[in-house]
Amino acid sequence: MHSATVDTTANGTTPVGFIGVGDMGGPIVGHIAANGFPTTVWARRPAQLDQFRETTLTSAASPAELAAGSEVIGLCVFGDADVREVITGPDGILEGARSGSVVVVHSTIAPDTCRELAAACAAAGLALVDAPVTGARASALAATLTVMIGGEVEHVERVRPVLSCYAQRIVHVGGLGAGQTMKTLNNVLGAATGRLACIAIEIAERLRLDPVQAMEVLRVGSAGSAALNSIASRLLSDAEFAEHARQLIAKDAALFGQVRAAAGAPESILERLALERAEQIIPTFERAFVPAPLDS
Q1: What confidence tens digit (pLDDT) does each residue in 179-237 have?
Q2: What whole-number distance in Å separates Cα of residue 128 and Cα of residue 215?
Q3: Model confidence band, residue 148 (pLDDT cutoffs 50, 70, 90)
Q4: If we measure between CA atoms, which residue out of 288, 148, 294, 168 comes closest to residue 220?
Q5: Which residue in the list 31, 158, 183, 251 is annotated as catalytic?
Q6: Does 183 participate in catalysis according to the annotation?
Q7: What is the pTM of this model?
Q8: How far apart are CA 288 and CA 267, in angstroms?
Q9: What domains sit in the chain, N to C, each tagged with a CATH number?
C-alpha cells in the first residue's frame, strides 16, 4: 500500500476513494481495486489498513486528502454521526473534494440525513446518492451484494460501474433517501425473522427436542433463512460479533420507527419483533453450541 496521492488519470479510469474498511468495506475495496480502479482508502483506525499492506492501494491522511484525488467516494461507516463527520467535519470530504465528484453512502442512516448532506455537497459542487447494501459479509466477499440506491438518474449511472465491482444487483428505488427507506424495511424484516428463529429454537428445547439438532434441520428446510444461518454460523460462537450485530439492529429498528412515523404508517409486528431482537440477539439454551456445516 502506498501513501502518495493517487494518479487521477491512471489508465483513464475513474479514481475511487473509500472510507470504512471493516467487515463490509474491506472486501468491497478489494473488488474495486481488482477491477482496475485506482483506489485510495482512509480509516479512522489505522490498523484497519493493515489488510491492504501488500496491495497497490493508496492510503490518505484524511478524508479531505482522499476526496481531492477521487471522483467517486464511497462511505461504509457506522451511523449518521459518522457519515456527517467524514463529509462535513474538519478535514472532511467537503474540504478537499473536487467539483463534480459523487459521494456514495453505503451506511444505513436516516433519509433526512442523506438529504441534509446532499444539500451540503451540492453547495460545494458535489452530488450524493444513498446506496445501502444487503447480503452481509459473505456477499461482500463474493461480490454478490444487492445495492438499493436513491438519487438522480445521472448520478446513479455515474457510479454504476464502480458498484458493479461488488454488487450482483443494483436497484434504483427512487429519489434521494429512497435507498435508506428500502434498507430500513429490509433490516427490520431481517431482525424480525431473526427473533422468530430464536423463539423457534427456544421452543424446541421446551418440547424436549435437542435445540442444536433442531437448528440444523430448520436452517436447511423450508423454514431456512439468512437469520437462522447467522445464528448457527457466527452469533452463537462470536460474542464480539453478536454485540456488534445487536447495536446495528437497535440502530436500524430506531431508524425504521422514524421513517415509518414520518410516513404516517402505524406500528407493526415487524417493528416490535425487531426491537425484541435487539434485546436478545441469540437464543437461550443450555447446551454448548458447535456449528455444523450446511450440507452442500
Answers
A1: 999 999 999 999 999 999 999 999 999 999 999 899 999 999 999 999 999 999 889 98
A2: 42
A3: very high
A4: 294
A5: 183
A6: yes
A7: 0.88
A8: 37
A9: 10-175 (3.40.50.720), 181-279 (1.10.1040)
